[in-house]
Amino acid sequence: EVQLVQSGAEVKKPGESLKISCKASGYSFTTYWIGWVRQMPGKGLEWMGIIYPGDSDTRYSPSFQGQVTISADKSITTAYLQWSSLKASDTAMYYCARPRIAGTFDAFDIWGQGTMVIVS
Amino acid sequence: DIQMTQSPSSLSASVGDRVTITCRASQGISNYLAWYQQKPGKVPKLLIYTASTLQSGVPSRFSGSRSGTDFTLTISSLQPEDVATYYCQKYNSAPFTFGPGTKVDIK
Questions:
Q1: I need a surface site. Which of A52, B42, B69, B86 has the fewest CB within 10 A?
Q2: Nearest CB to A107 within list B43, B89, B95
Q3: Reduced to 3 states, what is the DSSP secondary structure of residue A74?
Q4: What percentage of chain B exceeds 70 in pLDDT?
Q5: Which of B43, B47, B89 to mutate to test the interface with A (most CBs of A within 10 A)?
């Protein structure tokens, strides 16, 4: 079964660093892009960025460029989203998601369960 | 960057009604448009990709169409389980922007 399993909820203080994870299983990790999506409380979906684990090619939304870092570790089929200095405005649910088709940009048909990050 | 707009932002309809949601791209994106459904407290679910192709397992009352840079999601007969927020998303090139969402509930 194709799955993305995300790390658990986090409660952090402003200024702290954080790295959340998305563990992939059931498919060839290096041949599909993996994206990250933010959803602030009561708000819509925001596309943050995407990484191709095969060669670590990474694209960011201009809104998130420089604010977060997306990475992946092929050896443990895990993608990451990290912050070096959290702000209260980073409080949100974060989803990882995988496109339908290998090796290309496509709609996200597989989603992680979400990781809630609270910065307070 | 290409902007995505949706209308209406919310709607209330009766069970059995035909519901139409529109998504507009500020520039051409060909057919690289997806629709997602997100029920309260749940993970988004892919409904439609390439503007009009129904994802496997999605009820046939959902359909999508395109006219230029305007895209439409139609629910032919609204059911109680369709209460959700619906988002469009472009994916022709990064950033893969989502629309602001349309909240659908039952009158």
A1: B42
A2: B89
A3: helix
A4: 100
A5: B43
